[in-house]
Every structure is written in C-alpha cells, then in structure tokens.
Amino acid sequence: MSTESRIELVLWINELLQLNYTNVRQAGTGVAYCQIMDSIYGDVPLTKVKFQCRHEYEFIHNFKVLQRSFVKHKIDKIIPVERLVKCGFQENLAFLQWIKGYWDQMYPGGRYDGAARRQQSIDKTSPPMSTVGHRRRRHSNGSISTASLSSGITSPSLNPHTSPSLRDLHRQRQHLLLAMDGFEKERDFYFSKLEAIEAFLQDQGQKLQPPTLFKLQTILTSPSNGQRLEDDDTF
Questions:
Q1: CA–CA separation, 134 and 57 (whole Å)
Q2: What values do phi and psi take at 153, rounded to 5?
C-alpha cells in the first residue's frame, strides 16, 4: 500500500488517465479503478464499463468488471464494493492507496493513453447515428457536441505533444486547486465547530463559573498572535 495523500492520488489519477477528478470520492464510480488495471495489463474490457454512470447500481456494475480483472490476474485483494460505491472519502482513499502501491509494482512503463482507450470503448458501444441523432446537438459548423462521459471525465486539457514545461505548470495548477479546495473545507469545518461552541456558551453562560466562561470567550475571540480582538475591530 502506498502512503500518498489524497491530493497526490488525485493528481496521479488525472495524469495517468487524463481525467479531471477533484476528489478521491469520485473513484467510487469504479471507472478509474478499471482503467488503472487496464493501464497495467491492457486487457480490461472497457466496452463493459459504464463511463456515464450516475447511479449506484451502475457503479456496482463497474466493480464487477474490476472483480473479473482481479480474478483473471489472480489478485487476492478483497474489493469492499458495498462501501466503495457509497463514494465515501476514507474507503476510497484506502483503496486508492492500495491500488497505487500495486500499480507501482506492476506497471510495465511507457505512456498509457487513458482518453484514447475510453473513446475507443465508447465508439464500439455507441449506437448508429440514425438512432441517436435526436440526442446530439449540432453546432452551426456541422460538428457534433457530446456530453461529458461522467463526473470528472472530460476531454483532456493537454495533448501528447504538449511541452514538458506546460505539463509541469498544469500539474502545479491542479495541485494548487486541490489544496485550496481542501483548505476551504477545513476552514468551514472548524468554523462550524466554533459557531457551535459559541452558541453553547451563550446558552450555558449562567451555569458556568465566570473565570471559565471568560477564558473560553477569550480563546474564541483571540487572533493567532494572542491579542484579544476589541469590539470595534474589523476583519
């Protein structure tokens, strides 16, 4: 099992599979897991993977494809399907760390074109144009616009001929966006805790001893440098 952080794992998935994931929870659809195995062995039947999945029963279908790949290659790792398809953070983080460790050991090297493999599978399973023409929208120039395959699966922003320096900038940008998202969630989490504590103190104020109440209020209203905020201070 690898020890990469959630940000490192999301960046790895996006670079390997040419996806635009923003959270490890998105791996709960099973799509990324199937393609990670395909990047190693090249024999996962991606035509059976539901890339446009939106519902839990479709996620389960994708994990059945993954399980068959595990059986074929004699991988005895138990896949906790029922927990993974709930798209929980901890479950998918742990499974991603395991599969990343497996990939590190088994990946044959070279470049895996995840976007091309997905498109090939879609082309093979797409019905004839005459049966789906009403589902597609034509632009004024006659080209056809198709919807994203699923959440996080879009056309890659970088092509194989992109310069290394631009790829590095793209990775840095993704890393910063993911980090910022994590910081915002962490900020909101702790702010909600502070609001709950403040509400509790206001409700229990008469029952607490004055020194204790004053100390708690001082902690809540003090900035990081330890100086107490005055009532007329602005943020």
A1: 27
A2: -110, 105
Report, as ranges of residue numbers, the positions in the chain whose pLDDT lies below 50. Answer: 130-151, 154-157, 226-235
pLDDT on residue 3: 86
On whether the CB atoms of residues 149 and 118 are closer than 8 A, the answer is yes
Asked whether the whole model's pTM tops 0.85, one would answer: no
Tokens of 91: 């479950």
Task: Let me know: does 66 contact 33? Beta carbons within 8 Å.
Answer: yes
Ordered domains of the chain (ranges, CATH): 6-133+147-156 (1.10.418.10)
In this prediction, residue 208 carries a pLDDT of 64
Yes or no: say if 112 and 40 are a contact pair by the CB < 8 Å rule. no
**Rounded CA separation 100/94 (Å):** 10
Question: Measured between alpha carbons, how far is 192 from 184 in angstroms, rounded to an integer?
Answer: 12
